[in-house]
Specification:
Length: 452
């Protein structure tokens, strides 16, 4: 299980204390009643653990004293210093494609969706972000599943202790956390990736004896001895003047439609929001809302379908290898990546491969006033994550397609019609079934079939 990270911050409107889960794009302030769009998670944010380590100086001294009494020689504590060391904290969800080896003979015949399994696991790693050779402090000394943090600003901890600079760059941190080949892996990618820096307090207790001096290094959060015989002044001597770094922060924006000014409900799990008034589609951008092309695919008119629910998919333009060879001309295809919330990520893979294989003809309509306000729910998957999945499918070779370069304006989200039948949810275009239990359906009313 991955740890949950909460950012303790203030409402930009009234200064009220807000506890925001990291990655949440929308927040409601209970003090002033304002709603905000939160941006900035795309940057590497810096945090500290808001615990006053300094108050525990006496306890740390006592802990060291007890340790010294176990030694045969006589020692005394010369000085106790507090330091803040930066750690990279990398979190996310690993999406891995695993060939199903149960039936090898069949795999040879069809590199099909049914022959590949999806395995997922949480990624949660932390490691030192500064050069300190010889210190046995491999990860954050926090063992809780919930981490309460505050945003670190320049000078934040200066009066509390010596702050070590970050000397390991982001590229190197990703290599350590994800492996050297993380960008080109043909079988896995990391979704909802979040890389941040957490400053954690560490004590250096300098000890003098008759013939010998050394330092005891203590993790200030767990109050445990990390190194009992470190070189004297170990942390004091290794502290370097850091290159002055900048500390990006999260920003608050009004949660209103930039087109018509309508209030958008603060749904914390959404990444793409739809204005219920003008039906423009807004993605959470680097600095506020960014417009995204949105459309709804109509269900075939001839079919007598039960009530429909519309689920969003990111669409990526692609070229198809097979068709290109056969006809000697470029065949444009679409890569479909589901953007809605699912319980089981194998649903994403199943739907992405079946739609991409079949390439259904889409009869697109703008999201317009013809739709009652509640008919379209926003999406939870970031375009960047969908792009990673699209790249993974292409690299994995399952689909024999090549993605076309895509600029920002051409990002497209399409809502496809689905209907319920028994324990299955079936799409109205291919009629392929997904068990309802594998999907957490959006909380929207059922619709009557939308046709032109
Ligand atoms: Zn407020
Ligand atoms: Zn609007």
């Amino acid at each position: 299980m991955s740890s949950r990270v909460f950012i303790n911050t203030e409402c930009s409107q009234c200064g009220g204390s807000l506890n925001l889960e990291e990655g949440t794009n929308a927040v409601f302030c209970p003090y002033c009643g304002s709603s905000f769009l939160i941006t900035g998670y795309d940057k590497v944010l810096s945090y500290y653990i808001p615990r006053n380590a300094e108050e525990r100086r006496t306890a740390v001294q006592a802990l060291s004293q007890r340790y010294l009494l176990t030694l045969t020689d006589h020692y005394r504590i010369a000085a106790v210093n507090l330091f803040y060391l930066p750690f990279y904290h990398l979190r996310g969800k690993i999406f891995q494609l695993v060939p199903d080896h149960q039936d090898d003979a069949l795999v040879l015949h069809s590199a099909d969706a049914n022959r590949t399994q999806v395995k997922t696991k949480y990624l949660d790693k932390s490691f030192l972000a500064t050069d300190l050779e010889g210190l046995k402090l491999y990860s954050l000394g926090v063992r809780t599943s919930v981490l309460q943090l505050k945003l670190f600003k320049k000078g934040t901890l200066r009066d509390k202790g010596n702050v070590y600079p970050v000397t390991l760059d982001i590229e190197r941190a990703l290599e350590i956390g994800l492996g050297k080949n993380h960008k080109t892996s043909a079988d896995s990618c990391v979704l909802s990736r979040m890389l941040s820096i957490v400053y954690a307090p560490v004590w250096e207790v300098n000890v003098k004896g008759i013939n010998r001096t050394f330092s005891i290094i203590i993790d200030a959060l767990g109050e445990t001895i990390i190194e009992d015989q470190a070189p004297f002044h170990f942390l004091t001597d290794h502290l370097t003047e850091g290159i002055s770094s900048t500390f990006p922060t999260i920003s608050f924006h009004a949660l209103t439609c930039p087109n018509c000014g309508w209030d958008i409900p603060p749904d914390p799990k959404l990444y793409v929001f739809v204005c219920k008034n003008c039906h423009w589609v807004w993605e959470c951008g680097v600095d506020g809302f960014r417009e995204t092309r949105g459309a709804i695919a109509t269900a075939p008119e001839e079919d007598e379908l039960p009530q429909l629910t519309y689920f969003p998919f990111w669409i990526f333009p692609a070229q198809r290898e097979n068709l290109r060879r056969q006809k000697g001309k470029t065949a444009i295809a679409k890569l479909f990546i589901p953007a809605f919330k699912v319980r089981d990520l194998s649903v994403i893979y199943r739907l992405a491969t079946s739609f991409t294989n079949v390439q259904p003809e889409l009869d697109l309509m703008p999201l317009s006033n013809d739709l009652p306000a509640a008919q379209v729910e926003g999406a939870v998957m970031k375009w960047e994550d969908a792009r990673k999945l699209a790249d993974l499918l292409v690299r994995n070779g399952t689909k024999k397609v090549h993605l076309l370069p895509q600029g920002k304006p051409s990002r497209q989200l399409v809502w496809l019609p689905f209907y319920e039948k028994g324990i299955y949810l079936r799409d109205a275009l291919l009629h392929s079934g997904i068990q309802k239990a594998k999907i957490r359906p959006p909380n929207i009313p059922h619709l009557s079939p939308l046709t032109r």
